[in-house]
Write a structure and sequence with these properties.
heterodimer; A: 360 residues; alpha+beta; Gyrase A, domain 2; Alpha-Beta Plaits; Elongation Factor Tu (Ef-tu), domain 3; 3 domains; six-stranded antiparallel beta barrel; 9 helices; B: 133 residues; OB fold (Dihydrolipoamide Acetyltransferase, E2P); three-stranded antiparallel beta sheet; 5 helices; 9 strands
C-alpha cells in the first residue's frame, strides 16, 4: 500500500527526518532526537506538520442549528467570529466517533478540524446526519489545505518574524481564537500545553512557509515529541484515551459535554442514563521504568488500564493517563503490571506540565 | 535510515541486535548495536539482569526502553551473569551516544566455543541490510 504524503514530505526528508507509517501517512517521527525536540518546544519554539489532519468546512443556512445537534459541546458558546470550541462527535450510544475543534466564522460558515485516521468516517457521519436534518448544508473536505503548528514560549515572536503581515491581526488573539490573514487561517490553538498557533494554509504554500519558519529558528518537531508533549499537557489522543466504545464522561471529557442546557444532541440520552463507573486520571510512576499503553492498573477498588503511557522528558519520570474505577481517589497509590513486576504509581490530577512548568 | 557502517570487526553479533565482546579473562561483554539504538531512539530506562543469574541462550534477560518503545535483550549464549553496567541506570542515553562503549552486562559462558558460533560483522551487516528492505 502506498502511504499518503503531506505537501511537506520532501521538506521532512531534506531535514533528516526518520519517516514512519502513521495510520497510512508517511510522517516524520523525529529529525534526530525526540527528547531534544520535546525540550525545544517547552523552551523555545518548534513546528509540526499536521497536514494529515482534515479541515472540513460546513456552510449554509442553519449550520449553527445543525452543529448544536451534531456535537456534544454547545456551539452556542461561540458568539464572536473566529472563536473555537473543542468537542466530541458522539454516536447515539455515547461512544466517541472523534474529537475535534470547531471554529465559528459566521452564521453561514463553521470550520471543523478532525483527526486524520477518522476523517473519512467523520465526514460520512456528518453527511448522513445532514441529509436527514439539514440537507441545505454544504460539507466540504478541504484536502487542498495544509496545516502547520508553531508551538512554544517563543512561537509568537518567531511567527511575527516569519509572517510580519500577520502580527497586527493575530497578536491580540486569545487562546482558542482564530483569524484569517490573506490565504492563511491562524488559530491560537495547539496540542502541547504551550502558547502557539495552528496555521491552515493552501497546500501549495506550505513548503515555502515551512522553510521561512525554519529560517527564523523554528525547529521541526516529529510525531514522537508531539505525543510526549500532549501527554504532559494532559490532552486526550483519539484511539488511545477514547474511541467508539468509550463515552466522554469516562475519558476525562465531561467538561466538553453540555448536559445543562435544554439542547438535545446525538448521544445525550445515553450519557444521562449510563452509570459512570470509570474515570480517567493521571499516574506518575514512583519507581524506575516506563508506563505504556494497555498496562493493567491494580487498585483496591478493582482494575483499570493505562490508555496513554510514556516517559515525561520535562519531569524526567514516567507518566500516564489511565482509566480506573471511579472510587479510586487522587493521591492513592496503585500498582501497575510491567512485565513480571508490579510497580507503584501515584494517582494525580493532570495536566502534568503547562507552559514549561511541571505541576506534579 | 542511516546505515550501520563501521561495525566493529572485533565483536560478534546476534540476530536480536546485541553485540558480544570476548574478553581475555574468558568472560563476554554484551551491549546493543548502533542499528538497535537507532531503531529505538532516545533511551530512558535500562533494566539489567541480576549478577549471578543463570541464563540460557536466547533467554530474555534485560530490557531497554526508549521514549518510543521497550525492547527485550536476550542472552547471546548460555552462562552466568558476572557483572552489570550500573552507570546506565542514571545515564541510559550513553547507549545512544556510543552503543559500543555503553555495555550492559557481562557473562561467563558455560561453553566458550558457543560465542564463536555467533555472527561476525559481515554477517550481521548483511542481516541489517536485509531488514531494511
Amino acid at each position: 500500500m502506498t502511504l499518503e504524503q503531506t505537501p511537506l514530505n520532501a521538506a521532512h526528508r531534506a531535514m533528516g527526518a526518520k519517516m514512519v507509517d502513521f495510520g497510512g501517512w508517511d510522517m516524520p517521527l523525529h529529525y534526530g532526537s525526540q527528547l531534544d525536540e520535546h525540550h525545544q518546544v517547552r523552551r523555545d519554539a518548534g513546528m509540526f506538520d499536521v497536514s494529515h489532519m482534515r479541515v472540513v468546512d460546513m456552510r449554509g443556512e442553519g449550520v449553527r442549528d445543525f452543529l448544536r445537534y451534531l456535537l456534544a459541546n454547545n456551539v452556542d458558546k461561540l458568539q464572536s467570529s473566529g472563536k473555537a470550541l473543542y468537542s466530541c462527535l458522539l454516536r447515539p450510544d455515547g461512544g466517541v466517533i472523534d474529537d475535534l475543534i470547531v471554529y465559528f466564522m459566521d452564521e453561514m460558515w463553521f470550520r471543523i478540524v478532525v483527526n486524520a485516521g477518522t476523517a473519512d468516517k467523520d465526514i460520512a457521519w456528518m453527511i448522513e446526519q445532514a441529509t436527514i436534518r439539514a440537507p441545505q448544508l454544504q460539507i466540504t473536505s478541504r484536502n487542498d489545505l495544509a496545516m502547520i503548528a508553531v508551538q512554544g514560549p517563543n512561537a509568537a515572536a518567531k511567527l511575527w518574524q516569519a509572517l510580519p503581515e500577520a502580527q497586527k491581526l493575530a497578536e491580540g488573539l486569545k487562546p482558542f481564537n482564530a483569524v484569517e490573514c490573506n490565504s492563511m487561517f491562524i488559530a491560537r490553538t495547539g496540542y502541547t500545553g504551550e502558547d502557539g498557533f495552528e496555521i491552515i494554509l493552501p497546500a501549495k504554500a506550505a513548503p515555502s512557509f515551512w522553510q521561512t519558519l525554519h529560517n527564523v529558528g523554528v525547529k521541526p518537531i516529529g510525531l514522537g515529541a508531539r505525543d510526549t508533549l500532549r501527554l504532559e499537557a494532559g490532552m486526550n489522543l483519539y484511539g488511545h484515551d477514547m474511541d467508539e466504545t468509550i463515552n466522554p464522561l469516562e475519558a476525562g471529557l465531561a467538561w466538553t459535554v453540555d448536559l445543562v442546557s435544554e439542547r438535545d444532541f446525538i448521544g445525550k440520552a445515553a450519557l444521562v442514563t449510563k452509570p459512570k463507573t470509570r474515570k480517567l486520571i493521571g499516574l506518575v510512576l514512583q519507581d524506575r521504568g516506563v508506563l505504556r499503553d494497555h498496562q493493567v492498573v491494580h487498585s483496591s477498588h478493582g482494575d483499570g488500564e493505562i490508555t496513554s503511557g510514556s516517559f515525561s522528558p520535562t519531569l524526567n519520570q514516567s507518566i500516564a493517563l489511565a482509566r480506573i474505577p471511579s472510587a479510586v481517589q487522587i493521591g492513592d497509590i496503585v500498582q501497575v503490571a510491567i512485565r513480571d513486576k508490579m510497580l507503584a504509581a501515584k494517582v494525580v490530577k493532570y495536566p502534568f506540565v503547562r507552559n514549561g512548568k511541571g505541576l506534579i | 535510515m542511516s546505515n550501520s557502517n563501521n561495525l566493529p570487526g572485533n565483536l560478534k553479533y546476534t540476530a536480536s541486535h546485541e553485540w558480544v565482546k570476548k574478553e581475555t579473562d574468558g568472560t563476554i561483554t554484551i551491549g546493543i548495536t548502533q542499528h538497535a539504538q537507532e531503531l529505538l531512539g532516545d533511551m530512558v530506562f535500562v533494566e539489567n539482569p541480576a549478577v549471578g543469574r543463570q541464563l540460557k541462550a536466547k533467554e530474555e534477560c534485560a530490557v531497554v526502553e526508549s521514549v518510543k518503545a521497550a525492547a527485550d535483550i536476550y542472552a547471546p549464549v548460555t552462562g552466568v551473569v558476572v557483572g552489570v553496567n550500573s552507570e546506565l541506570g542514571d545515564a541510559p542515553e550513553k547507549i545512544n551516544a556510543d552503543p559500543y562503549s555503553a555495555w550492559m552486562f557481562k557473562m561467563k559462558p558455560d561453553n566458550a566455543a558457543d560465542v564463536d558460533t555467533l555472527m561476525d560483522a559481515a554477517a550481521y551487516q548483511a542481516l541489517v541490510d536485509s531488514e531494511a528492505h
